Amino acid sequence: MTDTRVLLLHGYEHTRPASHWLRWLAASLREARVPVQYPQLPAPGAPDLDAWAAVARTELEMLAESRGERVLVTHSLGGILWRRIAPALEPALMPDRVLLVAPPSASRLVGPLAGFAPTQGNDAPAGSGGPATLVVARASDPYRDVPVDALAHAWGAGAVELPGTGHLNPDDGHGPWASVLDWVLDGDARWRLGEGARSLDA
Question: Over 90: is that where the pLDDT of 191 sits?
Answer without folding.
Answer: no
